[in-house]
Design brief:
The protein has two domains: 39 residues, no CATH class; 91 residues, no CATH class. 31% of the residues lie in helices and 0% in strands. It contains five helices and no strands.
């Protein structure tokens, strides 16, 4: 994502417009005549799954696609995204962000953890947007 696109996404959010997070970059790029390019989003899970298991859970369709019965996007199967750094029900975005900032995040990160293990260092990834549920007060 370019700096210009990130700025447009920020402005769009401040104006109170809504786009699903998965659609915002490409939609705004097209609306503002930017040249969009698709790149896979690096996604991390808080558990170890083999490639075969991920394939079965997220591409259960006849042609190994995400559609069809058992789609991970349905209400009954959306829980497959729990523990993912990117996705509707990911949940760990806040923890990763807090630990990276040096805050305690359910037992990792924080002053004591950093004295024993060093600072939290994360690979390149996008975190799914998260809401402040009153745990912390973030300021810009």
């Amino acid at each position: 994502m370019s700096r210009k696109l990130l700025g447009l996404m920020h402005e769009n959010d401040l104006e109170g417009n809504h786009l699903a997070k998965e659609m915002a970059p490409s939609t705004l790029a097209l609306l503002h005549r930017l040249k969009p390019a698709f790149a896979p989003i690096p996604t991390w899970f808080d558990r170890e799954w083999s490639g075969e298991r991920l394939e079965k859970l997220f591409n259960p369709g006849e042609r190994k696609d995400s559609g069809g019965s058992g789609s991970p996007f349905g209400p009954a199967t959306g829980g497959r995204f729990e523990g993912a750094s990117w996705g509707t029900r990911g949940g760990i975005g806040t923890e990763l962000y807090d630990a990276w900032l040096g805050r305690d995040a359910n037992g990792w990160g924080g002053t004591k953890w950093e004295k024993e293990n060093g600072r939290v260092c994360l690979p390149l990834l996008l975190l799914s947007p998260f809401e402040d549920k009153g745990r912390h007060r973030y300021s810009s």
